[in-house]
Every structure is written in C-alpha cells, then in structure tokens.
Amino acid sequence: MFKKKFWQLFAGCLATAILTLTVVISAEAWLLHNITGNTYETLRFLRAMQLIQNNYNGEVKSEQLFDGAIKGMVESVKDPYTVYLNRDDFANLSQLTEGTFGGIGIVFGKRDDEYVVISALQDNPGALAGIKDGDVILSVDGVESKTLNMEQMAHKIRGAKDTEVELELRGKDGQVRKVRVIRKDIKTTSVGGTMLPGTSIGYIRISVFNVDTGVDFVKTYKELENKGMKALLLDLRSNPGGTLDSGVQVAQLLVPKGPIVSIIDKAGNTYVESSALEKVKYPAAVLVNGGTASAAEIVAGAIKDTKSGKLFGEKTFGKGCVQTVYRLDGETAVKVTTANYHTPSGTSIHNIGIEPDVKVELGEHAVEDTQLKAAEAYLKELLKKE
To answer: What's the CA gap between 351 and 341, in Å, rounded?
Structure first.
C-alpha cells in the first residue's frame, strides 16, 4: 500500500516537473520569438557563441563577442549611415555634441563604398592644407578607410587641438597624395551676403546649416533688401547641410505656400514642413554642386520643385536620409537610418541627388567662376523684362 502511494506521488511530481519544464521552455521560446521574430536563428546564434567560448584556442570575452555580433548585424543592412556605436564611438559622439573637440574642417560622406570629401570648409585647416571637395579619403594615419565605419572614420580625423593627422587622398585627377593637417577649433561663418557690383542682385552664400543659420539668413536678406535687392543669387555649393530646422527656415522665405519637405519613415508615417509665404518676392538663382548635401538639398529641391528659381551648376550629392540614435545601455548605442527626405514633388533624393536646371561645370583650376556668371546673367535678363 505504501509503495503504491509512493509511486503515485512520484509519478505526480514527475508529471508536474515535466509540465513545469515544458511551460518554461515554451515561455522562453515564445519570448525569443517575440523579441527576435525567429526562435531558430536565435538559438543558432547562441550555439555559435557557446562553441566559440568553449573551443576557441585563445582568450575571448563575452563582451567582445556581443560587440562583434551587434556590429555584424548593423553592417549587414549595408547602409553607411546605420552604425553600431561601441563605448569609444558613443563617447566620441557625446564629445562632438558638447563641442569639446578639435578637427580639420571637412565634411565627408560615402559613395560607391568610398569616403568622399563633400566639403572642405573655407578658411579651416583641411582646406588650407590642400584638401579639396571630391577628394577620396583612402586612409587616416595609416588605417585604411574601408576598414572603418562612418563614426570610426570621424573619430580618427577628429582629435585634440594642435595634434596632427595624416590623410591619404585620391584627387579627381586620380593622383594619390598624402596631406598632414594640424587639428584646430573649427569655425564656420554660416551666412555671408553682398550686392553684386553694378547690379540689383543680392548674393548670399550659406556654407553650412547650423542652429543660427535661419536667423542669420533672415538678417542678411533684409540687409540686402535695404540696399535695393531685386533678385537673389543663393550659393549652396559645397554646403554639406546640417540642421533640418535651419534649412526649413531659409526655404520658408523663398518658396510659396505649401510643402517644403516631407519626412517619411518605415511605417509610412509622414511629417511635412511647409511654407506660409503667399508670394515669392524676388526671382532667384541657386548655385549647387556635388558638395551640396542634406539640408542644402532640401532648400535646393524645394526651390526647383516649386519653380521659385532655377538651379545652376552640377548634380548634388544625394544625402536625403534621417538618422536616430538609440541607446542600448549607458555606454553603447546604434545609430539607425529611420526616414527619408522627399522634395515637394514627392521625389526621394537619397543616393540620387538633384540635377540642376542649367548644367554648368566648373573645372578644378578654373580662373573664372562660370557657374556664378551664368546665374548672374540669367537674373539680369529677368530684371530687364520687369
């Protein structure tokens, strides 16, 4: 009798244990599936990690494997602007945001798996050392560029003030050269303006879109109005972009009521920035080239699509995407492309660029600014008809 009860009790406990284990495993499988969307692939990843930890003939840390796995996941999407920020990368991004760094004053992007100088900012160390728009960066301090992601590349170029960095470059002519640059505090004059001599054409140059650009543009615009401006020549050449808000502020003074730019995310959610301007005040010509990117392309695209002015020069760079930084913990993060910009006509410019209305090439050693001359001649003809 006792044995029978014992085995009954044992069988009951065993059944309960098996049921509990089944529930736990099922719950874990359900959790893995809901987190990753693929339980099998998750288990395969964990199996690979276990095999390396148990069998690799050398020292390997779990943190190292996790960092490598995350880096591999991010790189698999093949988007140069989507990157994993490890502890060093994230610290450098925070440093950049706080403005406590030295640099050489260049802005670069990635095209055809190469890092290309979008803009060597005027009167800054890079430009003064001979770095030119369109140069391809082959290496930084001996480290090949193709081994670095965007953030690592920026980190290699930035550094403490008064320290030196060496860049190996390939120019538009195909010649390879090395340039040594001393890092300095980077200064940019965002907006400058003047009246073109002997005309009623106001000329405004925007070198970059920073937090003050919108306000500075309005101020310069009004100053030129007071000097008799009747037409506007806006120079966005080699402008790498910057803050979206500043680009929108500038466009709101130049394009008629309606959309300036649409920002569309993965889910199809759309956020539209618009102009409330009842009527465009002055005829406009806009200078663009391969260094015109991001927020500068938003302004140029809005002017072209709304026929508020004509674009002169060369095809723009084609950087029309938005990145968002998501923290993984207090020290690491992923920066992910989360949306694309679209011009008022609904066109995505990312990796495409904007074709000018009037194509005017400017040779590297050109003595005369033929692009500016062509835009000026166009505006003069318009003013004659008024």
So the answer is: 11
Determine the distance from the C-alpha atom of residue 160 to the mean position of all C-alpha atoms in its chain, rounded to a whole number.
23
Burial 53-85 (b: 16+ CB within 10 A, else e): eeeeeeeeeeeeeeeeebbeebeeeeebbbbbb
pLDDT the model gives residue 25:
42
**Higher pLDDT pick, 217 / 10:** 217
Query: What architecture is domain 101-182?
Result: Roll (2.30)
- Helix H segments across 37-86? 39-55, 62-75
User: What is the rounded distance in angstroms from the CA atom of residue 306 to the CA atom of residue 251?
Assistant: 11
In one-letter notation, the amino acid at residue 318 is G
Within 13 Å and on the Cβ side, how many CA atoms surround 61? 3
Distance CA 181, CA 169 (A): 13
Task: Give the domain ranges of the chain.
Answer: 2-60, 101-182, 191-385
Q: Which of 313, 339, 150, 322 is nearest to 247 (CA)?
A: 322
Q: What are the residues whose beta carbons fall under 8 Å from the beta carbon of 237, sequence distance 6 or more?
A: 287, 288, 289, 291, 292, 313, 371
Secondary structure of residue 278 in the 3-state scheme: coil
d(CA 355, CA 302): 13
- What the block records as the tokens of 312 is 């002169």
Element (H, E) at 7: helix 2-36
Report which residue type is found at 107.
V
pLDDT in tens, 135-148: 999 999 999 998 88
pTM of the model: 0.71
Q: Is 30 exposed, middle or buried (0-12, 13-18, 19+ CB in 10 A)?
A: exposed
Instruction: Give the 3-state secondary structure of residue 137.
Output: strand
Dihedral of CA 125/126/127/128: which sign?
positive
35: its two tokens: 């987190």
8 A C-beta contact, residue 279 and residue 256: yes
Specify the CATH architecture of the domain 191-385: Alpha-Beta Complex (3.90)
E strand spans, the chain:
83-85, 106-111, 114-120, 136-140, 143-144, 164-170, 176-182, 191-195, 201-206, 231-235, 258-265, 270-275, 284-288, 309-313, 321-327, 333-342, 358-359
pLDDT digits (tens, 9 = 90+) for 152-203: 888 889 888 889 999 999 998 899 999 999 998 876 678 888 898 899 999 9
